[in-house]
Write a structure and sequence with these properties.
Layout lengths: L3 E7 L5 E3 L3 E10 L3 E2 L1 E19 L7 E17 L6 E2 L2 E10 L8 E2 L3 E13 L2 E13 L13 E10 L3 E10 L4 E2 L4 E11 L4 E17 L5 E19 L3 E10 L16 E13 L4 E11 L7 H10 L2 E2 L1
Parallel strand pairs: 2-11, 14-20
Antiparallel strand pairs: 1-3, 3-8, 4-7, 5-6, 5-10, 6-21, 9-10, 10-11, 12-13, 13-15, 15-18, 16-17, 16-19, 19-20
InterPro entries: Arrestin-like_C, Arrestin-like_N, Arrestin_C-like, Arrestin_domain-protein, Ig_E-set
Protein name: Arrestin domain containing 5
Pfam families: Arrestin_C, Arrestin_N
Length: 322
Protein backbone atom coordinates (compact mmCIF):
# COMPACT_ATOMS: atom_id res chain seq x y z
CA UNK A 1 0.00 0.00 0.00
CA UNK A 2 1.34 3.44 -0.95
CA UNK A 3 2.17 5.81 1.88
CA UNK A 4 0.17 8.49 0.01
CA UNK A 5 -3.58 8.16 0.37
CA UNK A 6 -4.44 11.04 -1.98
CA UNK A 7 -3.26 14.32 -3.42
CA UNK A 8 -5.77 16.98 -4.39
CA UNK A 9 -5.71 20.40 -6.03
CA UNK A 10 -8.12 22.99 -4.66
CA UNK A 11 -8.93 25.62 -7.29
CA UNK A 12 -12.04 27.73 -8.04
CA UNK A 13 -14.49 25.71 -10.11
CA UNK A 14 -15.12 26.82 -13.71
CA UNK A 15 -12.94 29.92 -13.27
CA UNK A 16 -11.70 31.82 -16.33
CA UNK A 17 -8.24 33.28 -15.70
CA UNK A 18 -7.23 36.42 -17.53
CA UNK A 19 -3.69 36.54 -18.88
CA UNK A 20 -1.59 38.43 -16.34
CA UNK A 21 -3.83 37.38 -13.43
CA UNK A 22 -2.95 35.28 -10.41
CA UNK A 23 -3.75 31.57 -10.07
CA UNK A 24 -4.23 30.81 -6.38
CA UNK A 25 -4.94 27.43 -4.88
CA UNK A 26 -3.98 24.70 -2.43
CA UNK A 27 -2.40 21.27 -2.59
CA UNK A 28 -3.90 18.85 -0.05
CA UNK A 29 -1.73 15.80 0.59
CA UNK A 30 -3.13 12.96 2.71
CA UNK A 31 -0.79 10.24 4.01
CA UNK A 32 -1.44 6.78 5.41
CA UNK A 33 1.78 6.89 7.42
CA UNK A 34 4.90 8.98 7.98
CA UNK A 35 6.79 10.05 4.85
CA UNK A 36 10.51 10.82 5.12
CA UNK A 37 12.35 13.19 2.74
CA UNK A 38 9.27 14.06 0.67
CA UNK A 39 9.33 16.38 -2.34
CA UNK A 40 5.99 18.14 -2.74
CA UNK A 41 5.81 20.26 -5.88
CA UNK A 42 3.27 22.20 -7.94
CA UNK A 43 3.68 23.31 -11.56
CA UNK A 44 1.93 25.69 -13.94
CA UNK A 45 2.28 24.67 -17.60
CA UNK A 46 0.95 26.18 -20.83
CA UNK A 47 1.52 24.67 -24.27
CA UNK A 48 0.09 24.61 -27.76
CA UNK A 49 0.39 22.37 -30.79
CA UNK A 50 -1.08 21.95 -34.25
CA UNK A 51 -1.08 18.89 -36.49
CA UNK A 52 -2.72 17.95 -39.77
CA UNK A 53 -2.04 15.82 -42.82
CA UNK A 54 -2.02 17.00 -46.41
CA UNK A 55 -1.37 15.49 -49.81
CA UNK A 56 1.94 16.08 -51.56
CA UNK A 57 2.96 15.20 -55.10
CA UNK A 58 -0.62 15.47 -56.40
CA UNK A 59 0.62 16.74 -59.79
CA UNK A 60 3.03 13.82 -60.18
CA UNK A 61 2.42 10.16 -60.92
CA UNK A 62 2.26 9.45 -57.23
CA UNK A 63 1.00 11.21 -54.11
CA UNK A 64 1.29 10.64 -50.40
CA UNK A 65 0.15 12.23 -47.17
CA UNK A 66 2.63 14.12 -45.03
CA UNK A 67 2.14 15.25 -41.44
CA UNK A 68 2.48 18.97 -40.75
CA UNK A 69 2.88 20.04 -37.15
CA UNK A 70 4.15 22.77 -34.87
CA UNK A 71 4.27 23.46 -31.15
CA UNK A 72 4.79 26.29 -28.67
CA UNK A 73 5.58 26.63 -24.96
CA UNK A 74 3.85 29.54 -23.27
CA UNK A 75 4.57 29.17 -19.56
CA UNK A 76 6.29 26.73 -17.20
CA UNK A 77 6.62 27.66 -13.54
CA UNK A 78 7.17 25.42 -10.55
CA UNK A 79 7.32 25.61 -6.78
CA UNK A 80 8.67 23.10 -4.27
CA UNK A 81 7.12 23.40 -0.82
CA UNK A 82 9.46 23.50 2.19
CA UNK A 83 8.96 20.57 4.60
CA UNK A 84 10.00 21.11 8.21
CA UNK A 85 12.55 18.55 9.44
CA UNK A 86 12.16 16.71 6.09
CA UNK A 87 9.28 14.51 7.16
CA UNK A 88 5.49 14.54 7.16
CA UNK A 89 3.27 12.69 9.62
CA UNK A 90 0.21 10.61 8.78
CA UNK A 91 -2.88 12.69 8.00
CA UNK A 92 -3.65 15.69 5.79
CA UNK A 93 -1.25 18.50 4.94
CA UNK A 94 -2.21 21.68 3.09
CA UNK A 95 0.16 23.78 0.98
CA UNK A 96 -0.82 27.19 -0.43
CA UNK A 97 0.46 28.38 -3.81
CA UNK A 98 -0.02 31.18 -6.31
CA UNK A 99 1.35 31.66 -9.82
CA UNK A 100 1.27 34.74 -11.98
CA UNK A 101 0.23 34.13 -15.58
CA UNK A 102 2.29 36.03 -18.19
CA UNK A 103 0.52 39.14 -19.55
CA UNK A 104 0.66 37.93 -23.18
CA UNK A 105 -0.90 34.53 -23.75
CA UNK A 106 -3.24 32.90 -26.28
CA UNK A 107 -6.61 31.68 -25.04
CA UNK A 108 -7.43 28.09 -24.19
CA UNK A 109 -8.45 26.56 -27.50
CA UNK A 110 -9.25 23.18 -29.03
CA UNK A 111 -10.17 21.99 -32.52
CA UNK A 112 -9.45 19.03 -34.79
CA UNK A 113 -6.16 20.65 -35.80
CA UNK A 114 -4.96 22.85 -32.95
CA UNK A 115 -4.88 22.89 -29.18
CA UNK A 116 -3.80 25.47 -26.59
CA UNK A 117 -4.00 24.22 -23.01
CA UNK A 118 -2.94 25.21 -19.51
CA UNK A 119 -2.82 23.10 -16.38
CA UNK A 120 -1.67 23.02 -12.77
CA UNK A 121 -0.07 19.76 -11.61
CA UNK A 122 0.76 18.73 -8.06
CA UNK A 123 3.07 15.83 -7.28
CA UNK A 124 4.63 14.08 -4.30
CA UNK A 125 7.92 12.19 -4.57
CA UNK A 126 9.81 10.04 -2.11
CA UNK A 127 13.22 8.48 -2.69
CA UNK A 128 13.17 9.54 -6.38
CA UNK A 129 9.84 7.82 -7.07
CA UNK A 130 6.59 9.63 -7.86
CA UNK A 131 4.11 8.52 -5.23
CA UNK A 132 1.14 10.55 -6.44
CA UNK A 133 0.22 13.37 -8.80
CA UNK A 134 -2.87 15.34 -9.75
CA UNK A 135 -3.50 17.57 -12.79
CA UNK A 136 -6.22 20.17 -13.31
CA UNK A 137 -6.73 22.08 -16.55
CA UNK A 138 -7.32 25.83 -16.50
CA UNK A 139 -9.43 28.03 -18.74
CA UNK A 140 -7.29 31.01 -19.70
CA UNK A 141 -8.52 34.09 -21.57
CA UNK A 142 -5.70 35.37 -23.73
CA UNK A 143 -4.76 38.92 -24.67
CA UNK A 144 -3.82 40.55 -27.94
CA UNK A 145 -1.90 43.49 -29.35
CA UNK A 146 -4.45 43.70 -32.17
CA UNK A 147 -5.10 47.40 -32.96
CA UNK A 148 -8.11 48.79 -31.11
CA UNK A 149 -8.77 51.48 -33.71
CA UNK A 150 -11.84 50.84 -35.79
CA UNK A 151 -10.28 50.00 -39.17
CA UNK A 152 -13.06 47.73 -40.41
CA UNK A 153 -16.18 48.96 -42.20
CA UNK A 154 -19.28 49.35 -40.08
CA UNK A 155 -21.57 49.26 -43.08
CA UNK A 156 -21.56 46.69 -45.87
CA UNK A 157 -23.97 46.21 -48.74
CA UNK A 158 -24.42 43.38 -51.23
CA UNK A 159 -26.72 43.68 -54.23
CA UNK A 160 -27.51 40.75 -56.47
CA UNK A 161 -29.70 40.29 -59.52
CA UNK A 162 -31.67 37.07 -59.41
CA UNK A 163 -33.81 35.17 -61.89
CA UNK A 164 -37.09 33.49 -60.97
CA UNK A 165 -40.09 31.99 -62.75
CA UNK A 166 -37.76 31.10 -65.65
CA UNK A 167 -37.51 34.53 -67.24
CA UNK A 168 -38.27 37.19 -64.65
CA UNK A 169 -35.51 39.15 -62.92
CA UNK A 170 -35.28 41.18 -59.77
CA UNK A 171 -32.78 42.55 -57.24
CA UNK A 172 -32.05 41.65 -53.62
CA UNK A 173 -30.10 44.23 -51.61
CA UNK A 174 -28.69 43.09 -48.26
CA UNK A 175 -27.09 45.51 -45.76
CA UNK A 176 -25.41 45.08 -42.35
CA UNK A 177 -24.88 48.07 -40.03
CA UNK A 178 -22.96 48.15 -36.76
CA UNK A 179 -22.14 51.01 -34.40
CA UNK A 180 -18.99 49.26 -33.25
CA UNK A 181 -17.04 46.21 -34.41
CA UNK A 182 -14.65 45.78 -31.46
CA UNK A 183 -15.82 43.47 -28.65
CA UNK A 184 -14.63 41.74 -25.52
CA UNK A 185 -15.28 38.06 -24.69
CA UNK A 186 -18.64 37.79 -22.94
CA UNK A 187 -19.89 40.96 -24.65
CA UNK A 188 -22.94 41.54 -26.83
CA UNK A 189 -22.73 42.04 -30.60
CA UNK A 190 -25.53 44.34 -31.80
CA UNK A 191 -26.18 44.70 -35.52
CA UNK A 192 -28.98 45.68 -37.91
CA UNK A 193 -29.72 43.89 -41.16
CA UNK A 194 -31.80 45.48 -43.90
CA UNK A 195 -33.25 43.42 -46.75
CA UNK A 196 -34.63 45.19 -49.82
CA UNK A 197 -36.68 42.67 -51.81
CA UNK A 198 -37.20 43.98 -55.33
CA UNK A 199 -38.59 40.72 -56.69
CA UNK A 200 -42.05 39.25 -57.10
CA UNK A 201 -41.29 36.52 -54.52
CA UNK A 202 -41.45 36.35 -50.72
CA UNK A 203 -38.33 35.94 -48.58
CA UNK A 204 -39.19 33.62 -45.71
CA UNK A 205 -36.02 33.53 -43.61
CA UNK A 206 -32.59 35.03 -43.06
CA UNK A 207 -29.62 33.45 -41.29
CA UNK A 208 -27.07 35.29 -39.14
CA UNK A 209 -23.78 33.60 -38.27
CA UNK A 210 -20.55 34.54 -36.53
CA UNK A 211 -17.65 32.73 -38.19
CA UNK A 212 -14.26 32.01 -36.67
CA UNK A 213 -11.40 31.64 -39.17
CA UNK A 214 -8.21 30.12 -37.77
CA UNK A 215 -4.94 30.12 -39.71
CA UNK A 216 -2.55 27.35 -38.60
CA UNK A 217 1.14 27.25 -39.39
CA UNK A 218 3.23 24.08 -39.30
CA UNK A 219 6.20 22.32 -40.82
CA UNK A 220 6.68 19.08 -42.74
CA UNK A 221 9.30 16.51 -41.66
CA UNK A 222 11.62 18.28 -44.15
CA UNK A 223 10.99 21.60 -42.28
CA UNK A 224 8.99 23.04 -45.18
CA UNK A 225 6.58 25.71 -43.96
CA UNK A 226 2.89 24.95 -44.48
CA UNK A 227 -0.34 26.74 -43.53
CA UNK A 228 -3.96 25.77 -43.35
CA UNK A 229 -7.20 27.68 -42.68
CA UNK A 230 -10.12 26.18 -40.76
CA UNK A 231 -13.47 27.97 -40.52
CA UNK A 232 -16.29 27.19 -38.11
CA UNK A 233 -19.59 28.73 -37.04
CA UNK A 234 -19.27 30.10 -33.52
CA UNK A 235 -22.84 31.44 -33.17
CA UNK A 236 -25.91 31.14 -35.38
CA UNK A 237 -29.45 32.54 -35.50
CA UNK A 238 -32.29 32.19 -37.98
CA UNK A 239 -35.08 34.75 -38.32
CA UNK A 240 -38.31 33.48 -39.80
CA UNK A 241 -39.85 36.39 -41.60
CA UNK A 242 -42.20 37.14 -44.48
CA UNK A 243 -40.63 39.85 -46.61
CA UNK A 244 -43.27 40.49 -49.24
CA UNK A 245 -42.40 41.41 -52.84
CA UNK A 246 -41.09 44.93 -53.45
CA UNK A 247 -40.69 45.70 -49.77
CA UNK A 248 -37.88 46.51 -47.32
CA UNK A 249 -37.47 45.03 -43.84
CA UNK A 250 -35.04 45.78 -41.00
CA UNK A 251 -34.05 43.17 -38.40
CA UNK A 252 -32.17 44.06 -35.20
CA UNK A 253 -30.14 41.16 -33.79
CA UNK A 254 -27.85 40.41 -30.84
CA UNK A 255 -25.18 37.75 -30.36
CA UNK A 256 -24.03 36.99 -26.81
CA UNK A 257 -20.35 36.12 -27.02
CA UNK A 258 -18.92 33.25 -24.93
CA UNK A 259 -16.86 34.32 -21.87
CA UNK A 260 -13.77 32.59 -23.26
CA UNK A 261 -12.62 33.32 -26.82
CA UNK A 262 -9.46 33.41 -28.86
CA UNK A 263 -8.63 37.04 -29.53
CA UNK A 264 -8.27 38.47 -33.03
CA UNK A 265 -4.67 38.36 -34.16
CA UNK A 266 -2.34 38.38 -37.12
CA UNK A 267 0.18 35.59 -37.66
CA UNK A 268 3.51 36.62 -36.15
CA UNK A 269 6.87 34.90 -36.38
CA UNK A 270 7.06 31.90 -34.06
CA UNK A 271 3.30 31.60 -33.50
CA UNK A 272 1.33 28.49 -34.42
CA UNK A 273 -2.09 30.02 -35.15
CA UNK A 274 -3.99 33.27 -35.62
CA UNK A 275 -7.71 34.02 -35.45
CA UNK A 276 -10.11 36.29 -37.33
CA UNK A 277 -13.89 36.72 -36.94
CA UNK A 278 -16.58 37.58 -39.46
CA UNK A 279 -20.27 38.36 -39.11
CA UNK A 280 -22.33 37.01 -42.04
CA UNK A 281 -25.96 37.51 -43.02
CA UNK A 282 -27.36 35.06 -45.57
CA UNK A 283 -30.63 35.18 -47.50
CA UNK A 284 -31.42 31.83 -49.13
CA UNK A 285 -33.62 32.03 -52.24
CA UNK A 286 -34.83 28.50 -52.99
CA UNK A 287 -37.04 29.75 -55.82
CA UNK A 288 -33.93 31.12 -57.54
CA UNK A 289 -31.47 28.37 -56.52
CA UNK A 290 -29.10 31.00 -55.13
CA UNK A 291 -28.35 33.06 -52.02
CA UNK A 292 -27.19 36.55 -51.09
CA UNK A 293 -24.47 37.13 -48.48
CA UNK A 294 -23.17 40.20 -46.69
CA UNK A 295 -20.04 39.99 -44.52
CA UNK A 296 -18.47 42.34 -42.01
CA UNK A 297 -15.29 41.62 -39.98
CA UNK A 298 -15.34 42.07 -36.22
CA UNK A 299 -12.49 42.22 -33.71
CA UNK A 300 -12.32 40.31 -30.42
CA UNK A 301 -9.79 41.80 -28.02
CA UNK A 302 -8.85 41.56 -24.36
CA UNK A 303 -6.30 43.41 -22.23
CA UNK A 304 -4.03 41.87 -19.59
CA UNK A 305 -4.78 42.63 -15.94
CA UNK A 306 -2.42 44.41 -13.58
CA UNK A 307 -0.28 41.65 -12.14
CA UNK A 308 2.08 43.62 -9.87
CA UNK A 309 0.63 42.29 -6.61
CA UNK A 310 0.83 38.66 -7.65
CA UNK A 311 4.32 39.18 -9.06
CA UNK A 312 5.46 40.42 -5.65
CA UNK A 313 3.94 37.33 -4.03
CA UNK A 314 5.77 35.07 -6.47
CA UNK A 315 9.09 36.73 -5.79
CA UNK A 316 8.52 36.52 -2.04
CA UNK A 317 7.83 32.79 -2.31
CA UNK A 318 10.85 32.23 -4.60
CA UNK A 319 8.89 30.52 -7.33
CA UNK A 320 11.26 29.21 -9.96
CA UNK A 321 10.41 29.66 -13.62
CA UNK A 322 11.76 27.05 -15.96
Amino acid sequence: MSVVKSIQLMLPKDAVYQAGSCVKGQVVLTLHSTLVDPIVKVELVGRGYVEWSEETGATLDYSRDVICNNKADYVHKSKMFPVKDNWLSAGSHTFDFHFNLPPRLPSTFTSKIGHVFYYVQASCMGREHILAKKRMYLRVQGTSDFPRENKSPLFVETEKKVTYNCCRQGTICLQIQMENNIFMPGGRVHFTTEIDNQTGKCIKSIIFALYCHVLYEGFTPKTERRSRVESSVLLRQEANTQIVPFNTTKIVSVFNLPPLLSVSSNMLEGEIMSTQYELVSIVHLPWSLTSVKAKIPIIITSSPVDSDNCQMQEEADSVSQE
